[in-house]
Amino acid sequence: MNSYDGERMSELLESQGMKAVEDAASADLVVLNTCHIREKAAEKVYSQIGRLRRPDGSSPMIALAGCVAQAEGAEVLARTKMVDIVVGPQAYHHLPELIKKAASGKVVDIDMPLESKFDALPERRQVGASAFLTVQEGCDKFCTYCVVPYTRGAEVSRPWSRIVKEAHALVDKGAREITLLGQNVNAWTGEDEVGRNQGLDGLIRALAKIDGLERIRYTTSHPNDMTEGLIEAHGEIDKLMPFLHLPVQSGSNRILKAMNRAHTAESYLTLMYRLKEVRPDIALSGDFIVGFPGESEEDFQATLDLISEVGYSLAFSFAYSPRPGTPAADMDNQIDPEISRERLQRLQALLNQQQFDFNQQTIGRKATVLIERKGKKADQMIGKSPWLQSVIIEAPVAIGDLVEVTLTDAGPNSVKGQWLNQKQLATA
Ligand code: SAH
Ligand code: SF4
After folding, report:
1. 37 lines ligand 2 (CB under 6 A)
2. Which H or E run includes 417?
3. Which tens digits make up the pLDDT trace of 293-327?
4. The model's pTM
């Protein structure tokens, strides 16, 4: 979502006559968009700010945006003299006025205004083959370790008509794939153009009708908002890709309860089986936290067992990071960081092995690949398979092409594809 917000801020500043430059030191204004989810991400920004100081001691105007800005507010200005503007994730549409005000003094805007920032943003500009579209923001779930409900605010769904309009604009500007974004994207609800209540599955069905839009994905989902309708959509909508990122965090019900996740390992597994039933080739992904307060070796083992049961194609895993203001940060049974580190290594060894196994299982399959960018070597192009694998192809194909390949070699993080369209080349 920060990537999407960064794009939107950049579009907004461009609409004000600004131009992007390659080198931050030569910029008049630098916007740093920040993440507060774990301590490491939040701390990195301060060293980055320091690096913006020029040899003569001057610096560009600096706007600190995103969730660190939201969480720390005016404290940012106490911590560093270099920042001129502090702007939260729900207020960045105010950037043009904030920049004007900053000419005569420091400004902080961490409002969560009732009006939607999206309504104040300019039209989408040219985008790549695969684009993001935020449909939902914020969270009311209050997992005990997480800052999102505090930094992004309450759960809000963008209106149907605005989303459909933005999706059309993205396709007109070059997107062939759209990934719908939200902190709890599958909690999206709204009314369609005739006033019927719809969930994310209804929205996806409507977007699938857009000519020129070939692929739809969505992230990140919460297990408790995974409705039967959405699961069935995976078996019915061709444009909906066979991939789902569904974080579980832990395989231990005791820890899930302490995390306030409001689901169990069993209810999560039931969802995973149901998804495999409706879409047998679906690739499954998840998020995991190790070392949550009170996690015993037995709890950790339950997480490993759950991972073995599911078989993930991709995963993100983290050592628990205490976040100021969250209930878990004040729990008295914090885990020694050394133990967390060691558990994380064991967990990641298993997940990496599963990712490699998944890639190997796809070898020999025919797949459609959406070409997204150039590879490292001159004749290489890189795209995504339906299962979100990076596919490396050596063929005269262009960004935005959807090409047929046979998957030939598996690496831990990518696969190779043999282009099946030689005939077309001969006649071209
Ligand atoms: N809304 C999504 C994910 C939001 S945050 C969900 O509920 O699953 C993205 C991921 O960051 C989470 O899934 C979690 O694995 C991780 N995360 C969040 N807070 C964390 C913390 N305090 N320490 C470590 N990892 C954390
Ligand atoms: Fe954070 Fe996700 Fe839990 Fe919301 S549901 S509090 S975003 S981890």
Report:
1. no
2. strand 414-419
3. 999 999 999 999 999 999 999 999 999 999 999 99
4. 0.94
222 lines ligand 2 (CB under 6 A): yes
All structural domains of the chain, each given as residue ranges with its CATH number in brackets, are 2-109 (3.40.50.12160), 117-361 (3.80.30.20), 366-426 (2.40.50.140)
Residue 378's pLDDT is what? 87
Query: Under DSSP, is residue 268 helix (H, G, I), strand (E, B) or coil?
Result: helix
- How many CA atoms lie less than 13 Å away from 269 in the CB half-sphere? 16
Q: Is 148 in the pocket of ligand 2 (CB under 6 A)?
A: yes
In a mutational test of the pocket of ligand 1, which residue from 146, 155, 320 has the highest number of ligand atoms less than 8 Å from its CB? 146
Alpha helices, H only, 279-319: 297-310
For residue 14, the surrounding DSSP H or E stretch is helix 2-15
Query: What pLDDT is stored for residue 248 in this prediction?
Result: 98
Q: Is the CB of 38 under 6 A from ligand 2?
A: no
What's the residue count for the chain? 428
Nearest ligand by distance to the CA of 325: 1
